[in-house]
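Data availability (excerpt). The following record was deposited with the supplementary files.
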Amino acid sequence: MSGPLVSVLLKCGDDAVFRSSAIGWWKRQEYKNIEIIVGTNDVRRAHGKYVLACTDCDLYVERTIAGLVEVAEKHKLDMVFFNMEIHWESNSDVRALSNMELAFPFFPYQLSGRPVIDANFFNGANSYVGACLVRRDFLIRRKLPEIQYDNIFLRKCLMYRPAVFTISDYLGNHIVRVDSGYRNAHEFIAGELDGYGRLRRWAQKSPILWRRWHDKIYQMINMLSLDSAAGLMSKVVPLDYIPQCSIHLVDHCNLNCKSCSHFSCLARAGDFELQPCDFHRDIRRLAKITRGRVRILELYGGEPLLHPNVTEFMKLARRYFPHALIRLITNGILLPQQPPHFWRAVHRYKILISPTKYPIYVNWEKVSELAQKYKCHLDFFGGTGYFQKTLYHKPLDIYGLQNGPLSYINCQHTRCINLYQGRLYHCPVVAYIKYFNRQFNTNLQPCESDSLDIYEKHLKPADVFAYCARPIPFCRYCMSRQTTRGHPWEQTKKDISEWTLKQ
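Predicted structure:
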C-alpha cells in the first residue's frame, strides 16, 4: 500500500524476545511504507511524515497504520489516536465483546462523521492508548521532540490546539467519566485548553514579561500538563456516588507478586477469610448508606477464588447492587478448575470476570471455552489481554514525613475505596498495611480518621461521599510523586525495598 512514510517508535525495554515479537507484529502490517525505530522516544530520529507512538509495543492488527494514515490524510489532521477498551456499561446492562478482535477499530472500521475525543484518555485509570499517529513537523514546530508517558504527551500536544480526533472501538459507546466534573468529552477538552489559554493570555498582556519569561511560562504550562485540571478537581470535589469499591474475600494469594499494593504476598492462608454472614451485613449497610450509588463493585483479594464459597458473594452483591458493574478480579490460575455451578452463578448474577494475564502459564483457551459455554463475559484487567503485564513501585515513607495532601493529589489509588471488616478505606495500602508491619516490624499505624465506620450512627450518603474526596492522615506515609512504572513482573522476595526506597 502506497502512502507517506510512517516512523514507528517502539519502547520495548530490555526484553529481547518481546522486542523481536513487537517488531515482527509491525512488519506484518498491511501498510508497508514504514520505518521501525526501537528503544527511543526521540522524534528527531524519525524520518517519516508521521510518527506512530504510544503503541505499548504489542498492537498487531494488520490495518492499524493503514486506518490511521487514511483518516489523517483525508481530514488533514495533526493527530489521530484510538484506544482498545473492550467493555462498557450502559445503565444496568453490562456488555462485553466476546470476540476480542472486534475491539480494534480498524478490523474493519467504517468512519462516519468526525469521532469525538473521549475523556477517558485523559482522566483516570484504565485508559489505554492503542496508537497515536502524529505529524512529525507538528512535533518539531512545537518543540516536542520526545514522546513521553501517554497522557502527558497527549495533553502537551493539546496545548497547541492540533487538528485532532479520537477513534474509540468501532461500536463507539465509551462512557465519559462523570467524576471528571464535565458532562461530556467536549467539555473536558474545552476545560483543559481553557486553563492553558488563560495562563498564556495573562502572560501576553505584557510584551516585556512575555519576551523575558517566555520559556519559564511554557515550562509552567508543561508542568500543568502533568496533572489534568479536571483530574485534580475530581479528587477533591465530592461526588454523589462511589466510583469503585473493592472487597477482599481473602487476603492471601497463590501468586505473590512483587510490590503488591494489597500486601497479599505478605498475608498467610488463614489470616482472613470473609464469612458470607459478615459480607451480607456489610454489603446491605453499604447499599443503605450510599443509597445504592456504587458504580463498580469488585470482589477482590488476595486471590478471591481461594475462597470456598465465592458464588454466595456474587449472589449477595447483585441483590443489593442490581445496577452496579460487579466484577471478580482474579489472577486466573484457578479459573480452568471452576465447577459448572460457578460459571452458572457468573452468568445468572451478571458478573464480569476480570482476570489479570500474568507471564505464567494458564490455560486461557479452556477459560474462554468455559466462558462461551456458559455465556459469561471476560475482560482482562488492566489491559493485560493486549499489553504485557508490568509492575509499578509506589514507595512508602516508613517515618511518615511526606506532605499528605500532596501525596493524595498525586496518588493513583485515589478513590480506590476498600470495604474491609465494616470500615471504608481510601486505598488498599491503608486497609492492609498490617501485613507490611508484621513482616518488617514497622509501625505505620492508621488512626481512627483514616477510615470510616459504616455502622456509625446517623451516617448520611453525603458523609460517605465527602470522606472519599479528602486526604487522610495516613497519606503522609506515601511517596506518590516518586512512583515508577513499567517494571518487569516477578514474584516477591519479601524484601522491604519492594515497598520503600530503602535498599
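Summary of structural features: The chain has a mean pLDDT of 76.
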